[in-house]
Amino acid sequence: MKKFNPYLIVGFGALLLSIIGLYNGYPLVYSDTGTYIYSGFDKFIPYDRPIAYGLFLRFFSFNYSAWFVIIIQNIITSFVIYETFKLFEFKKARLNQLFLGTILFLVFFTGIGWYSNQLMPDFLVPISVLVIFILLLKSERDYPGFILLGFILVFSLISHFSHLLIGTSIVGVVLFCRLIFRHKFSIFSLKRILVVSIVVLSSWLFLPTLNYIIERQFILSKGSHVFLMSHLNETGILKKFLDENCNSPEFKDCKLCQFKDSLPNDAASFIWNSHIVDSCGGWLGSKKEFSKIINATLTQPKYLVMNIYRSTTYGLVQLTRNDIGSGLSAYNEGSAPYGQIHWRFNSELNNYLNSKQNKWNGVELKFDALNRINFVVLIACLLFFILIFASSVFLKIAPKTLLFIIFVVMAIVVNSFITAGLNCPYERYQARIVWLLPFAVIVILAKNYSILFKTIYGLIVKK
Description:
By secondary structure, this protein is mostly helical. It is 68% helix and 0% strand. It has helices at residues 6-17, 19-24, 33-42, 52-61, 67-87, 92-109, 112-116, 124-137, 143-158, 161-180, 190-215, 224-235, 237-245, 267-272, 276-279, 282-285, 287-299, 301-319, 336-344, 349-353, 368-389, 399-422, 427-431, 436-462. α5 runs parallel beside α8 and α22 (399-422) packs across α24. The longest helix has 27 residues, at 436-462. The two termini are 42 Å apart.
């Protein structure tokens, strides 16, 4: 593969990733896909999400086909994985072989392709994690590559509010580790951490700027208060708070008090399947009241402790929710995705309806076998991780690869606690990112296979 240039290799990697979309017969959709398409094409800020990914759908579909969108998504995914491999200085021929072999493995045994071929911004979470790692270590001489990756990172972060928090938290953890464990994390220079921090923090400014350009509103989100309230509802904190405070002078006029004995059990029902939000003024009108209650639960010690405890519990539960395919049911006539595909990509409507996801109500799209395989892969990776750090093996591994798997595990944990802390445990949030773990294990094995084999063999013989 020495004769092939990197662009061709990255393109071939994107083609391998596209196997899932081709297998389905059309780009995969989720219930939120309709809102993203609608907001991007009509250029308005939705109540419940940023507009950035909607604009991405509009621009890269070329107002013609959703296929172009997943081609671009797979190219981005392929490119970032290739750039990650380059950090570890493999010889070019071996780099290409490892890259394509890894892509093939991930496509068939993890969820990577089920998110990169989906008309949703979920694929950008692991991409942002890898890009942060690359930017922390990439040579300063590659200015074009640095700028391109920086652009991908900013776009990834502004595509969803949770992405902003995840990216910011990851950089914060890296800075903390660099300051506290100075020698062990010396590979990350403080100067480079500062540069990456500026890129990440600029996203917090870029998102409201984009919103101002679209609707003349310099805001991060229209509806974050609704999601936070739904989280309080699911954890049971809202019920307890209303029971204890609805008779007080400060909260007796809150409209939520009339629902304190009929609150739904879960976050989704609170937002979508009840009339509570509408009765409290809708997405915009409820902001003052909801924010008042949210602030009270975060400032009063009793409720703050409950918040921390429940969010921590949810975060740990989220770590175990790794099933691929959650939400990838049929979205036929009457659903939001159907309506937007029918409207924006009418010539592809038959392809959409005949995809495995939608034909015969989606009975052909099954994930049981894949999830069993994915479970085995993740358990094997976890055991490998434990083996490395429960013995002296980690002392002999190349520092950069060891740091990579630590970074990946940290990012997976951050993703778990942020998503569960903002909403509730849900398989989609974790399955979209957890393929990074087998990817990191492959990198370690590829870079340190001779050392690992000799060390493990020595331990076995010694016993």
